[in-house]
Amino acid sequence: MTTAGTGDAGTSVIGGAVKEAVKETVEKEQTMSDQGGAGGVPEFVVIYRGFTPDEVCAATEHLLDAGFTAFEVTMNSPRPVEAVGRLAERFGARALIGSGTVRTVRQVDAVADAGARLVISPTTDPDVIAATKSRGLLSVPGAMTPTEIDRAWNAGADVVKLFPLGALGISYLRQVREPLGEIPLLVSGAVTAELARECFAAGCVSVGVGLGLFDADAATRRDWPALAAAAVRYRDTALG
């Protein structure tokens, strides 16, 4: 009788844990639905790395008119917090403004204070994820292995960034998606338009794209109208 009682208790505990896990998954999926997309992140996130605040604002004006609605300024750009603040003030009502290459809690607080609503990182740091969520921002930590992806998701990520996808290749993404298909993935790292199309077909929800992948020459020349036209071609190819 004692053994049976212990077994019943053990089954009850396990059943409760399973129910709790299912509840958490449902709540995350409902949050995604309420935000209008997987984790609230649009299909394309434009990455600004190495551009000044003035350049970032000028480029965003043209890219927003071209239909792009999510932008991240990396923390290794000139005056990144200023750039985020200016983007948020000028375009925040129409676009998702964020910061990339965020690796510390202090950086999370700085960009949150500047008006960012999205935090993207190259790595998975539970403290950074927790700080991001505590400020009410979308969390997109970077990961490469299945273990890292799972840990990032369980730590509270809204979407997990698979990086560097260009080096890993589409076959890697497909294989990772098989056991981890419920985790929304943003792919980044030298993702061409053709590769982006394959990634969407494989089930990823978003692509992070640097300006050089739209048109490296236009980006170098700071020719924003030409860059925006190239970005539209990239998007059409990726979604074609």
Task: Tell me what the structure shows.
The chain has 240 residues and is an alpha/beta fold. It folds into two domains: 1-34; 37-239, Alpha-Beta Barrel (TIM Barrel). It is 56% helix and 14% strand. The protein is built from eleven helices and nine strands. The chain has helices spanning 2-34, 53-65, 80-91, 105-114, 126-134, 146-154, 165-168, 170-177, 193-202, 211-221, 224-239; strands spanning 44-48, 70-74, 96-100, 118-120, 138-140, 142-143, 160-162, 185-187, 206-210. Strand 8 (185-187), helix 9 and strand 9 (206-210) form a beta-alpha-beta unit. Helix 8 runs parallel beside helix 9 (193-202), helix 9 runs parallel beside helix 11 and helix 10 packs antiparallel against helix 11 (224-239). Residues 1-6 and 9-37 have low confidence and may be disordered.
What are its keywords?
globular, 56% helix, 240 residues, alpha/beta, 9-stranded parallel beta sheet, 11 helices, TIM Barrel, single chain
